[in-house]
Design brief:
about 90 residues, mainly alpha, DNA polymerase, domain 1, two-stranded parallel ribbon, 4 helices, elongated, Helix-hairpin-helix domain-containing protein, DNA binding, Competence_ComEA_HhH, RuvA_2-like, signal
Length: about 90
């Protein structure tokens, strides 16, 4: 019985942890903000996102991030819920 309670509590904590992930608007955030909020995106990749945005304009969809060198579809999928596009302000 104690093991069942322990497993239930651990699962609840694990599931709720994802609710606290911050979102980031990749069209307005700094490289530092992007690196801090997106999994698998460090300083170098975040700088590449900002440079790509400066050279090519705003991203229209989250999938557009895969056009940035070093950012693949796996990274986009891992962060899809945290990526904001457009006029949505950073939460």
């Amino acid at each position: 019985m104690k093991l069942t309670k322990w497993i239930s509590m651990a699962m609840l904590l694990f599931i709720s942890w994802g609710c606290f992930a911050a979102q980031v608007n990749v069209n307005s955030a700094s490289a530092e903000e992007i690196a801090a909020e997106l999994k698998g995106v460090g300083d170098t990749k975040a700088a590449a996102i900002v440079a790509y945005r400066s050279a090519h304009g705003a991203f229209k969809t989250a999938d557009d991030l895969a056009m940035v060198k070093g950012i693949g579809q796996k990274t986009v999928e891992a962060n899809r819920d945290n990526i904001l596009i457009g006029d949505t302000a950073k939460k």
